[in-house]
Write a structure and sequence with these properties.
Blueprint: H1 17-37, H2 43-57, E1 61-71, E2 74-85, E3 89-94, H3 101-114, E4 118-123, E5 133-137
Parallel strand pairs: 3-4
Antiparallel strand pairs: 1-2, 2-3, 4-5
Helix pairs in contact: 1-2
Length: 144
């Protein structure tokens, strides 16, 4: 790593501690789900399992949360987030061969619309879940 490159977690300094702690809890729940169910199921199975775990943990969330997309003051689309947790963390659940750049851009767009600092992409279609976890941080350099 070059001296001028950021460290892997340097961008987390701009994320509120509450959001970081919540993301750690959600990742822990996701790991428990993955240990039990393993890879290869449809996204809906992991999403419903996550809802069960969130309820049991006493964490507030909205499933398939509707978000309006504005353009010049007009709502041009309505999209659904998999999970909006505690009104401060977006979680998008995937069961795909690999997380692609468009998955990252899509989550970044949601963070911008909701004015939130961080979201999680969780790809359950991997042998070890830690390889399927991506934190997406909304920074000033992200395009609006």
């Amino acid at each position: 790593m070059k001296d001028d490159e950021p460290t892997p977690y340097e961008d987390l300094v701009n994320v509120p501690p509450r959001v970081l702690e919540l993301s750690r809890r959600v990742i822990g729940l996701a790991i428990a789900i993955h240990r039990e169910l393993g890879p290869g199921l449809p996204e809906e199975a992991y999403e419903l399992a996550m809802c069960i775990e969130l309820r049991e943990a006493g964490i507030r969330f909205s499933q398939q949360h509707l978000v309006e997309v504005p353009y010049k003051g007009v709502i041009v689309a309505r999209v659904r987030l998999d999970l909006l947790i505690e009104e401060c963390l977006v979680v998008e659940i995937k069961s795909v061969e690999a997380i692609t750049p468009i998955h990252r851009v899509q989550l970044t767009r949601y963070l911008h619309i909701l004015d939130l600092p961080m979201g999680l992409l969780l790809n359950f279609n991997v042998p070890v879940l830690k390889d399927g976890i991506r934190r997406i941080i909304r920074t000033q350099s992200n395009h609006p």
